[in-house]
Amino acid sequence: MRVFRVMAKQIKQINQDLQGIETQVLALSEELKRIYAVYIDHLGTTVRKELVLAVFNLCTQVAPTDFLALSVRDREKLQQQLRRLVRDWQKAIPALVSSPEMIDPELAAEQMQAVKSMVEETPLSEVARKVPAALSIEFTIPSAKADKTELLPPLPFVAKGAPQTLMIWCEILELRMDSVLLYLSRVVNRELYERKILVDKVPFKVYGIAIAAAESKTPSSLAPHLLSLMVEENKDDQKESIAKITAIRLRLSELEYASPALSSARQQIRQLAGGLGKLNKQYQKFQQELTIAEAETAWRSLWFEEPDS
């Protein structure tokens, strides 16, 4: 009986330790939510400035001849469309974390696993289309009168639970942000392609494949957010040749480099993520100890010594 009392006390203590970590995770989740809201608010402002600069560099440094080939009216239309896009998307990006909802931890894990599997199994040409859809992101350009909470569906937010659940939430949010940047890059590239600013020797879908395949954290060798790649070009005589294409690819790393406010918020996120990682290691250790203690208790509850015959 004494052994059972000791084991029961040990199990109770481990459960208290686990609950203590969950309480810390709850406090950490609120801080992460606050910092991410600050980060994404600055992200919207930074994207507006950097996207205009990227298009300017593309039109004046990479393809000046093609830009000058446009009529004055077409240049004005291009700039008007660009202003509309950056204005609308500055509003849309912060809505990623507006009105967060509660989420079941198991559901969060299932969503993250589904996204990871999709990224691994989906052809590159489909990633830009399927991954945002899997994350419930609607990329309809908002109207000027739309309320910001209606621009994009709210991201479920974890209020309590194991550290792993909060880590999954952060991963999903990072995926969503990059998916938005990927989609917005594609929208701008389409506009430039249709106006003959981008090389039209290859189908536009090649640009989609290229920017989806490019490593989002790799810095550009050109101006910020400009991606240059060599792709195969099919000619009328069926011979293949290599064509150089340059396109817009917004990257979080380059946006952070351009914005001290964004960089500062990222640094805070990294610090909080480091603390979360330590809590997760402690949590897993206590979970293992609890499993062992429960197994020992289950064994001892049934075991008895047979009398000597």
Low-confidence stretches: 98-104, 122-154
Mean pLDDT: 76
Strand content: 5-15%
How would the global form be characterised?
elongated
SSE order: HHHEHHEHHEEHH
**How far apart are the termini?**
25 Å
| Tally of helical runs | 9
Main β-sheet, in a few words? 2 strands, parallel
Which terms would index this structure?
two-stranded parallel ribbon, 309 residues, mainly alpha, single chain, two-stranded antiparallel ribbon, 9 helices, elongated
Structure in words:
The chain is mainly alpha-helical and 309 residues long. 67% of the residues lie in helices and 7% in strands. Strands 1-2 form a two-stranded parallel ribbon. A two-stranded antiparallel ribbon has the order 3-4. The relative contact order is 0.16. The model is unreliable at 98-104 and 122-154 (pLDDT under 50).
What's the layout of helices and strands?
Elements: H1 2-62, H2 64-68, H3 72-92, E1 101-102, H4 105-121, H5 124-134, E2 156-157, H6 163-194, H7 204-213, E3 226-234, E4 240-248, H8 252-258, H9 260-302
Parallel strand pairs: 1-2
Antiparallel strand pairs: 3-4
Helix pairs in contact: 1-3, 1-6, 1-9, 3-6, 4-5, 4-6, 5-6, 5-7, 6-7, 6-9, 8-9
